[in-house]
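Explain this protein:
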Amino acid sequence: SEDLILTEAAFLRDNFPTVRWIQLDDGYATMNNHGAHGLGVPYEGEEGVDCQKFPNGLRHYTDKLRELGMRPAIWIGGFCPKPSKIFQEHPEWFIDYSYRTPSTSPLDVSQQEARRYMEYAADVLIREYGFDGVKHDFWSYAFEDSHSLYKNKDRSGYEYRRWWLTALRNRLPKDGYLQTGCDLVEANPFLGEFFTNYRYGIDIIPVA
C-alpha cells in the first residue's frame, strides 16, 4: 500500500543513504488475484488501480516518493488475465497462448491496434503516473515463441521485440532503468542494448 511503502521509503532514506530507487512490484492492480497483470491496467482507467492500496492514485504515490528523495519504478507484466476488461472487450487483440497459460494471454504485437494500445499503456504507466524505472516481467513470450502465433506474418518476433523495447526505453528518462524478468539478458547484445539490468532467479518472499 502507499502508506506502507512511503513509511519504508522514509526509513531507507534516513538509514540507507545509498538507496535511491523504490520499485512497486505486482499487486497494485485490481485484477491481481487473477494472475500477473500490468499492461492491461491503463485500459481500465482509474478502476484498474487498487484504490484501497493507493486511494489517491499512482501519480500521487510517485510524487510523494519524490518528496522523500527517492525515485519510483514499477513492475509491469506482458500478459493480461482473460477475466480482465481489455481481454473481454478485445479478445481479437490477443495471441491464443492456451497451450502454456490457459488463463492469461499476451497481446498480439503483429496487430496495429494492439501495438497502439501498448504504446498508450506505456505512456500512462511511465509518463502519466510518473515512474522513472520499469521492471518488465513475463514479456518475452510474445516475441520469442517457436510457434507461429501471430495473426499477421509481415515481421519477425525479433523485429517486434525491438519495436517494443525501443518504445519503452524512449519513454524513460536517460538515467532511468529498464529491467527484465523471466529472461536472461547477460551476454546478449540484442537485449543488453535496452536493459539496464536483469532479474534471474526466484523472488524473495518475506515470511512473517
Q: What stands out?
A: The beta strands are 21-24, 71-77, 79-81, 104-106, 133-137, 177-181, 197-199. The chain has a mean pLDDT of 88.
